[in-house]
Sequence to fold (282 residues):
Amino acid sequence: MTWRLLITCPDRSGIVMAVTSLLFEHAANIVDAQQHTTDAGDGTFFMRLEYTIAGPEEQRALEESFAGTVAGPFGMEYRFAAADARKRVAILVSREDHCLLDLLWRWRRGELPVDVVRVISNHPDLGDDVEAFGVPFSHVPVAKDAREEAEERILRLVHGEVDLVVLARYMQILTGAFIEEIGTPIINIHHSFLPAFVGADPYRRAFDRGVKIIGATAHYVTEELDGGPIIEQDVERVSHRHEPNDLVLIGRDVERVVLARAVAWHADDRVIVHEGKTVVFQ
Fold:
């Protein structure tokens, strides 16, 4: 069995030795290890380990021992995750299909280590495309004066059934109550290189400013609009010859790649959120 261990704690000497020694005592074999500290003198320490261990009983014994002999003394926040436990994902989308279809294509090819269990849209347009992948599609319209009712329907569809929600160009603002109630991380793709050009019609505003790069940002969703911890960003160079429609086409390519990377890294337990930012072990 392969397991992962993610750690966050105040940095001090002896952390790596304590963790690896305990794994050795429980006959666990470390196959990958990465670490980062914000300040060697007075910072925060982050670590991601992958290791193999004989079976469930040995893993339970390791976890019990880890809590008392390592995590407690070092003041750790930590999480164990089974590498073969694929995260169940629900995708929310509106009318634009490029990010949705890219995720479904990568998932079908085995490039995304997740199980896509449902796609939900506030428009019916993409139903046939989704069902062609063998994924259930639910149309949940969102009226201006009935957003809470729509969110309640979405919650009934996914609550307790998924480990991650992905907004693949879902053009609705989620309420704080929904974000709290859903009980899982939510990843959004923003069609702009945040924090610049936040809000509506970023490609027109970028064009008006004569930008030389455009980009996309994948981030976790919080109550602060487009202000959640950033997971991944990328850019493409553009020139004065590109019209707004050209920027849209280029931007869609960036969005697809950035969102897919963010979902894959989250699914592989490579992301640690700390104080509004992320550490991403690649």
